[in-house]
Amino acid sequence: MAQSLKLVNRTSVFRNLTEMWAEYMRRNSEKVIKTHKCLADIPGPSTVSFLTDIFCKRGLSRLHELQLEGKAKYGPVWKASFGPILTVHVADPSLIEQVLRQEGKHPIRSDLSSWKDYRQYRGHSYGLLTAEGEEWQQLRSILGKHMLKPKEVEAYSDVLNDVVGDLVQKIKYQRRQSPHVVKDIANEFYRFGLEGISSILFESRIGCLETTIPKETEKFIQSINIMFGKTLQTMAMPKFLHKIYPNPWRKFCESWDYMFAFAKGHIDHRMADIAEKLARGEKVEGKYLTYYLAQEKVPMKSVYANVTELLLSGVDTISSTLSWSLYELARHPKIQASLNQEIQDVLEGRDIATAADVAKMPLMKAVVKEVLRLYPVIPGNARVISDKDIQVGEYIIPKKTLITLCHYATSRDEKYFSNPDEFKPERWLKKDESHHPYASIPFGFGKRSCIGRRIAELEVYLALSRILTHFEVRPENPECLVKPMTRTILVPGKEINLQFLER
Ligand code: HEM
């Protein structure tokens, strides 16, 4: 009797517990449904007002500022229709982290890009920037073996230092034309960027830093500028408008055509060199990337696409970073003097820094970090999570939604950086000052982050060390402020003119 009573009691306790658990789950799931808002609940400007901002108020070049305005008006998450594309903006480091941590095996940057449309239209292959899925994964692992390994990248120091030597000669030449001053320094750095990346890709020089620049090189640089200038416009225009208002799409395609042809010309030329050498029974030992890609049995069509994309990735990014670095150092003579001191202490009378030298320059690294915080080359990156709905803060974002990551807004947010608009490299050196790890991520994140990061950093450090060893840099006119402008990437809004005083 006592036994069976115990059993009844246990059974009813168990039943009660089960019911309580079920009730708890029911309430909680209701709460989940109630607390997680959906796409329709996300605030944002009406399509008309956003398009007016973009097209009538020069908004395309102010997209980075629209991030700040959007955040101030709607909070850290808002949505806007960019032409035919609805995009959810995320402008808080923790929320950006939340998106990126759910990006999956083959992250997608954006699946609606006019860059991809162009490749389909012309029947070109995709390069690493534009490829997706397994194709991207394969390219990434082939290129990563070369471009992400510190030792492999250090091997490019000598080649890059040759290019830096020519840059210094070019600055000397230019400052003789208008005493001490180099007008539009970004222009010199475009050429430097193209010469640097070409030397890595082809192991040969293409003459960008000579006093008379080859016409095709000039046209390649112009094509990059036009292509970047037209990228956002062609993305924001629904495809049917390409027929009614053909100019942007036509110019965009012409620029890409030229870039592909330029890369193909150089690749074919180098490949012919190799074939000749092999025919003569000579050994071919190429460190350069094009040769390496071909050796890895990457189809030639894909080599063309990859080299084109790598060439263009190495021009504006480097130019912008170096231009802003010198702009800020010229305006902050004390920081410039400390950096020069650091460089001279490490070089001990030598002129040319090596990869091992720049590794011993913490202020140099802090300066470049700070420059990229203030002027992130890619002010707004993106992700599309294609296989599942994801939670971002209080919202559930449906799969396949384009999510814009507002890096400019987070890196200029005073919640994460004190006096956010000031150039203060020392903030990266203070042990007691830490920053949210996703507040400034100029090279992106994770598997799809910048594959050229190590090359870019090395190139920028080597160039800055040599420039500061030779010159003290001052603004031509201290009153002349230069603001950034979006041209797909963030570039100086007007010319940066600097005085170079020989040391
Ligand atoms: C200061 C200079 C540079 C900055 C700030 C920069 C920044 C970035 C960023 C933010 C991304 C997107 C990352 C993401 O989506 O998470 C990216 C991707 C990429 N970058 Fe850079 N970049 C720089 C220089 C370079 C250079 C010199 C090269 C070529 C040598 C390069 C090649 C690439 C490529 C190929 C990708 C696409 C990677 C992929 O999709 O797997 N970048 N870069």
List keywords for this structure.
single chain, 503 residues, Cytochrome p450, four-stranded mixed beta sheet, binds protoporphyrin IX containing FE, oxidoreductase, Cyt_P450_sf, Cyt_P450_CS, monooxygenase activity, Cyt_P450
What does this structure look like?
The protein has a single domain, classed as Cytochrome p450 (Orthogonal Bundle), CATH 1.10.630.10. Strand 5 and strand 6 form a beta hairpin. The chain has 20 helices and eleven strands. Helix 8 packs across helix 20, helix 9 crosses helix 15 and helix 15 runs parallel beside helix 20. Protoporphyrin IX containing FE binds next to helix 14, helix 15 and helix 20.
Short note summarizing the structure:
The chain is an alpha+beta fold and 503 residues long.
List the helices and strands and how they pair.
Elements: H1 2-35, H2 47-56, H3 63-74, E1 77-82, E2 85-90, H4 93-100, H5 114-122, H6 133-147, H7 150-154, H8 157-177, E3 181-182, H9 185-202, H10 215-236, H11 241-244, H12 247-279, H13 289-295, H14 300-313, H15 316-331, H16 333-347, H17 355-358, H18 362-374, E4 380-384, E5 390-392, E6 395-397, E7 402-406, H19 407-411, H20 453-470, E8 471-475, E9 484-487, E10 489-492, E11 498-502
Parallel strand pairs: 2-7
Antiparallel strand pairs: 1-2, 3-11, 4-7, 5-6, 8-11, 9-10
Helix pairs in contact: 8-9, 8-20, 9-14, 9-15, 10-12, 12-14, 15-18, 15-20
This protein binds protoporphyrin IX containing FE.
Protoporphyrin IX containing FE is lined by residues 109, 128-129, 140, 197, 309-310, 313-314, 317-318, 321, 372, 377-378, 381, 442-445, 448-452, 455-456.
Binding site for heme: 450
Keywords: Heme, Iron, Metal-binding, Monooxygenase, Oxidoreductase
GO cellular component, one term: mitochondrial inner membrane
